[in-house]
Amino acid sequence: MGYRIVIADPLSEAGLEPLRRDPEVEIIDVSHEDDPDALVRALRDADALIVRSRTKVTRDLLDLAPRLKVVGRAGVGVDNIDVDAATERGVLVLNAPNGNTIAAAEHAFALLLALARRIPEAHASVKAGRWERQRFIGFELMGKTLGVVGLGRIGSEVAKRARAFGMEVLGYDPYLPESRARSLGIEPVSLEELFRRADIITLHTPLTEETRNLIRRETLALMKDGVILVNAARGGLIDEDALVEAVRSGKVAGVALDVFAEEPPKNAELLALERAVFTPHLGASTVEAQENVARDTSIAILEALRDRPVRTAVNLPEAPSPEAAELLRLGERLGTFAMDVLDGPPVAVDVTFHGEISEAEREFLVRAVLKGVLARQLDVRVNLVNARTLARQRGLEVQETWTSTSTGFPFLVQVRLRGERGSAVQVSGTIVEGLGPRIVEVEGFPVDVPPEGTIVFAHHVDRPGVIGRVGMIFGEKGINIATMIVGRREIGGEAVMLLAVDHTPDEDTLAKLLDIEALRSVKLVRLG
Ligand SMILES: NC(=O)C1=CN([C@@H]2O[C@H](COP(=O)(O)OP(=O)(O)OC[C@H]3O[C@@H](n4cnc5c(N)ncnc54)[C@H](O)[C@@H]3O)[C@@H](O)[C@H]2O)C=CC1
Ligand SMILES: O=C(O)CCC(=O)C(=O)O
């Protein structure tokens, strides 16, 4: 089965090489089409969509792509993608966050140096035949204090370069440990202190509700008179009207912008400012960065299409380990098992983890369990991306507990699915080295079965002859029993039976089983 991958925005041809050489991939490149319907037509049977920043991946656009599995952003910011809408539809969103870090950091410096040495104006003057050496007096970076807001990939590279220029570097990032800032030679400070002390402020945060209009009248008022501002992150971080006022009043002595609230910018007052340097969102526009992000996105898209863990997923936590696939299989099958055995619709899932299991593994397992529970009930595609969202939408309560109590297994995942009117099912599993996922407990009875294929699950009373009669019924129907596991707590007491069968028994066979007096209930579990 091939994959149809739509490319909506121009990307580096060299970076697309992993897709071009994959025999299973068909590329539909509409990036140079003038007709806006070309994208709509291409999306009808697309498996993946790759964008840079031009294409807006809206809820409506996603509705036109019923087969879409993944959207790849060849860059960092995903603010051109409606990630919530993608998540609801089970569409994975991924980005390429590492490939353009250096390009963006160097561009922030290019902007700052261009502003400091008045290069754009001086260049224009020379081109116009003038030689105005007295007009273009700049300022040096050495000894100045740079305030870096956002100390992630780009912010920390900017800080490194600033140190090399002999600048003192202050940094503000509420999500980064102070020790990390210090190890980069950055003095961690509050945002207010950064605003008060910095000669030059450069922004490197994503655009979020918290960072929108980070630079506005009130925050500008805190800054030094004659401050310099650089923004190569997102236009929405600055209230442009407030900025225009501050530049006109001299509060801000210069501004260098690569990004604008609206792109291309329409704010004539902003564009008319002197002591300003503007570029048309070029931060990531180097040959190297574009090749990097296109390659990283191509590789990640192929991983996603082949259901392999993706490190740069935006709406899915980072895959926990190379063994993630086994964990996912275990979680999903425990969910399916519980769902198939439960009487009536589920109202709550309690997932209890015992032993050594990381936070990332727990998150993946919970999503996998929910996927197993929900896939039986819903028409819509359920996957790890939308499992939590769908559970919430359907009012399925999810409780997670993690205890360090030893169970004899390195780790154990216990799923308790609760239904209406007090019904409940409990099933636990683990991964056994060399054997893979195993179900090791059902309804409090110890068992040991791989969560595979079709399983007949029965409650019975531990009496002689029951197992023989069950075997006979299957034999008469020509159904081979691959494995039979019986769990009991005491001789002659309540017991459970799990029979892995090679063919799915029909209703008649199940009814015959129920005729056995000692058999209390029989359920068919289909684990795929
Ligand atoms: N001009 C261009 O072409 C490019 C622009 N960008 C922009 O730069 C931004 C940063 O990119 P990276 O450094 O790669 O991202 P990153 O995720 O590595 O770093 C962002 C940092 O901002 C911090 N942050 C979040 N909220 C904050 C707040 N309220 N105050 C202070 N810090 C906060 C985070 O903790 C994180 O450390 C991207 O989100 C994107 O919008 C990225 C690449 C190219
Ligand atoms: O694709 C581009 O050039 C924009 C880069 C960018 O802003 C990002 O990666 O967030």
From TrEMBL:
Its EC number is 1.1.1.95. Gene3D superfamilies: 3.30.70.260, D-3-phosphoglycerate dehydrogenase, domain 3, NAD(P)-binding Rossmann-like Domain. One of its GO terms (biological process) is L-serine biosynthetic process. Keywords: Amino-acid biosynthesis, NAD, Oxidoreductase, Serine biosynthesis. One of its GO terms (molecular function) is NAD binding. Residues 455-528 form the ACT domain. It catalyses: (R)-2-hydroxyglutarate + NAD(+) = 2-oxoglutarate + NADH + H(+); (2R)-3-phosphoglycerate + NAD(+) = 3-phosphooxypyruvate + NADH + H(+). InterPro entries: ACT-like_dom_sf (IPR045865), ACT_dom (IPR002912), Ado_hCys_hydrolase_NAD-bd (IPR015878), ASB_dom_sf (IPR029009), D-2-hydroxyacid_DH (IPR050857), D-isomer_2_OHA_DH_cat_dom (IPR006139), D-isomer_DH_CS (IPR029753), D-isomer_DH_CS1 (IPR029752). The keyword Glycoprotein does not apply. Transmembrane segments: none annotated. Pathway: Amino-acid biosynthesis; L-serine biosynthesis; L-serine from 3-phospho-D-glycerate: step 1/3. SUPFAM superfamilies: ACT-like, Formate/glycerate dehydrogenase catalytic domain-like, NAD(P)-binding Rossmann-fold domains, Serine metabolism enzymes domain. Belongs to the D-isomer specific 2-hydroxyacid dehydrogenase family. NCBIfam families: PGDH (TIGR01327). Catalyzes the reversible oxidation of 3-phospho-D-glycerate to 3-phosphonooxypyruvate, the first step of the phosphorylated L-serine biosynthesis pathway. Also catalyzes the reversible oxidation of 2-hydroxyglutarate to 2-oxoglutarate. This is D-3-phosphoglycerate dehydrogenase. It comes from Brockia lithotrophica.
